[in-house]
Amino acid sequence: MAQDKPHQNLAIIGHVDHGKSTLVGRLLFETGSVPEHVIEQHREEAAEKGKGGFEFAYVMDNLAEERERGVTIDIAHQRFDTDKYYFTIVDTPGHRDFVKNMITGASQADHAVLVVAADDGVAPQTREHVFLSRTLGIETLIVAVNKMDTVNYEEDRYREVVDAVKKLLTQVRFDTDDARFIPISAFEGDNIAEHSENMSWFDGPTILEALNNLPEMSPPTDAPLRLPIQDVYTISGIGTVPVGRVETGILEKGASVSFQPSDVSGEVKTIEMHHEEVDRAEPGDNVGFNVRGVGKDDIRRGDVCGPADDPPKVAETFQAQIVVMQHPSVVTAGYTPVIHAHTAQVACTVESIDQKLDPASGEVAEENPDFIKAGDAAIVTLRPQKPLSIEPSSEIPELGSFAIRDMGQTIAAGKVLEVNER
Ligand code: GDP
């Protein structure tokens, strides 16, 4: 794997059955990311059964199998290269917790490919995912109008779908100049790696060209260290080892760190990454580390580790902008759902609904409304029922977004505007 290339996290979003998995399979296949011996083996099997050209189907089967096994979501596992970048697909498309993971940052992506089937056009999850990408700060959106083979590769139909998607993007104030539109067939391989002869009317880039042309993201190394704790282990010979992913800043051996909201601190003794000891870790690195004087019962999942002189904020209350995606009735003051933010899950009470916003313009539509419902955007004040570490999105976006869950569903997505510290 060419690790020396800059890295990009890519999300593949869009309505169910519009072809996300097929596109992922196609990308892995066209970039040679499926081991040759695996393809070879399948080629032989296919030849025996009298079916040629089966390699691509093989990739698809493999992906489907992984999905059935419920592959862990926190670990990036689908990788491919273009000339300039190496890409990690940050989620298994179709995973049931995809929306939650996208919001809490487990699937934090810099860019996204929105897949819209040419026959169906814009569908409910197209809308939901575009909404979320906007709220969660996706930098660039590539819109793949898929299944062009099912509409005879017709330019007119492509234009219709593009217009509908543009309208949707405008609604959520996504700059349509920043989106790139490409007609494809993930299944047939049109406009993925090579320009399709079936759509000579299209003179834009292929999917791989568009991916290769994405702007380079700089990792948030300048921000203060924020490392949400996923688990805490005891390892013989070392002691207490919290593990997690560095979201922002640098974790360094010898540094004084503080864990919040547990409110304990100490000096970093060792850092381990991929079973090797290292002196420092950067954003995106998954690490286990040991801190002098911090015991197993002192800290827990949901704590955030930061510099002792710039510790993670702990909220007494916080104000947030939320978008209600689904709710059987209405949200009123007093409602107490569970907030999922980074690795924390804390019940929070809606203390007040401060403003309802016009989703199209973002302007205030109503002051202090009595309730909000599905489809509404609003500014609310939330009071955590147990200490919660969270940051204003304007300061540390990686720690500033959250999902509101209730009854096993993602009710809303939110972005922290202000933290009133304890
Ligand atoms: P997902 O739910 O978005 O991941 O969708 P899948 O990738 O599982 O695709 C759903 C169905 O659409 C499958 O039966 C695919 O074979 C089919 N499909 C995906 N892409 C294309 C395409 O470009 N053309 C055609 N005709 N079918 C496609």
Automatic annotation (TrEMBL):
Gene Ontology molecular function: any one:
GTPase activity
- Primary location class: cytoplasm
CDD domains hit by this protein: EF1_alpha, EF1_alpha_II, EF1_alpha_III
According to its UniProt record, which reaction does this protein catalyse?
Answer: GTP + H2O = GDP + phosphate + H(+)
Q: Name one GO cellular component term.
A: cytoplasm
Where does the record place the Tr-type G domain? 5-220
Compartments where found: Cytoplasm
Q: Where does GTP bind?
A: 14-21, 91-95, 146-149
Q: Which keywords does this chain's UniProt record carry?
A: Cytoplasm, Elongation factor, GTP-binding, Hydrolase, Magnesium, Metal-binding, Nucleotide-binding, Protein biosynthesis
Entry's Pfam families? GTP-eEF1A_C (PF22594), GTP_EFTU (PF00009), GTP_EFTU_D2 (PF03144)
Residues reported in the UniProt entry to bind Mg(2+): S21
Coiled-coil residues: none
Query: Could you say which protein family the record assigns here?
Result: Belongs to the TRAFAC class translation factor GTPase superfamily. Classic translation factor GTPase family. EF-Tu/EF-1A subfamily.
Function of the protein: GTP hydrolase that promotes the GTP-dependent binding of aminoacyl-tRNA to the A-site of ribosomes during protein biosynthesis.
Q: What is this protein called?
A: Elongation factor 1-alpha
* Originating organism: Haloprofundus marisrubri
> What does the record give as the organism's lineage?
Archaea, Methanobacteriati, Methanobacteriota, Stenosarchaea group, Halobacteria
